[in-house]
Specification:
This protein is an all-alpha fold. The protein is about 65% helix and about 0% strand.
Length: about 270
């Protein structure tokens, strides 16, 4: 009986996954995302064409610094993740089907996990496919950039979808909260100096991008690369340095543990 129950629960989760994937794909959001990706691909193609003011051939570092980082990672990727993830549960709530979905025999965590898997699969197809087309339109340098940055794109997409889906499950108007987060936190906080930017997803995506693109000569201009380390060298070394224990405090270079002075009540050992 337990095996039958588990099988029926798995089949129900797959049904929720399939319906969510189909419902989110055939929407106006997909058309908007495809139009945005087409504009980005066109910009990448026009950028790669030879120009009089730039006779030298383009490099992979220039593609990453001028197209991938500001246009794709800084704008398109968060927008695509926001569009699909924030609407994953909001549409169920608007259509008054969320209550029915949560009162079925499917455990609530599995419902959210199925919705997350559907939104993540659709978003990964958009972001990775868009990155591939955008890079391939630039020729050979695009192939080099694609081979380096596709893992960063996949991990950043996974993080953004999970975050925006949390907003969708938390509040009713998740799109406005996600937009405020993307504009105020990710865009502004992620680009100001200091440690506050470490709370953003974009900071860690940039850290990984700069580290992965080191072989291509990609580095932030006018900024020390160490500022984009997720953990500073001093912090990492302090974590890796073992702390002194109570027994090791006396075994210092100054000598062994000193003998305490004798008092009146101290008993001397008996003489043989």
């Amino acid at each position: 009986m337990d095996t039958v129950s588990k099988t029926s629960t798995l089949a129900a989760c797959l049904q929720v996954f399939r319906l969510s994937l189909r419902r989110q794909f055939f929407t106006r959001q997909t058309i908007v995302m495809l139009v945005l990706l087409a504009v980005a691909v066109l910009i990448s193609y026009l950028w790669s064409l030879p120009k009089q003011w730039h006779p030298d051939p383009r490099t992979s570092a220039e593609l990453a610094r001028q197209i991938v980082l500001p246009l794709y990672m800084g704008f398109l990727l968060p927008v695509i993740c926001l569009g699909y993830a924030s609407a994953a549960i909001a549409e169920e709530r608007t259509g008054e089907t969320l209550v029915y979905l949560l009162t079925t025999n499917i455990p609530r965590p599995l419902v959210y996990l199925s919705k997350y898997a559907a939104a993540l699969l659709l978003t990964l197809g958009m972001t990775l496919g868009g990155l591939a087309v955008l890079c391939l339109m630039s020729g050979k340098i695009g192939l080099e950039a694609l081979g380096v940055f596709w893992t960063v794109t996949a991990c950043a997409t996974t993080a953004y979808v999970g975050l925006f889906l949390l907003f969708s499950a938390w509040v009713r108007r998740a799109t406005f909260l996600a937009l405020a987060y993307a504009l105020m936190i990710e865009t502004l906080t992620g680009n100001i100096p200091g440690v506050l930017k470490r709370i953003t997803v974009s900071f860690y995506a940039k850290s990984w991008l700069y580290e992965s693109g080191e072989t291509l000569g990609l580095a932030p201009k006018g900024v020390a690369l160490s500022l984009f380390d997720p953990v500073s060298a001093a912090t990492a070394s302090s974590w890796s340095t073992p702390r002194p224990t109570i027994s090791s405090r006396w075994s210092t270079p100054l000598g062994p543990r000193p003998t305490p002075p004798l008092s009146i009540n101290t008993r001397l050992p008996a003489s043989p």
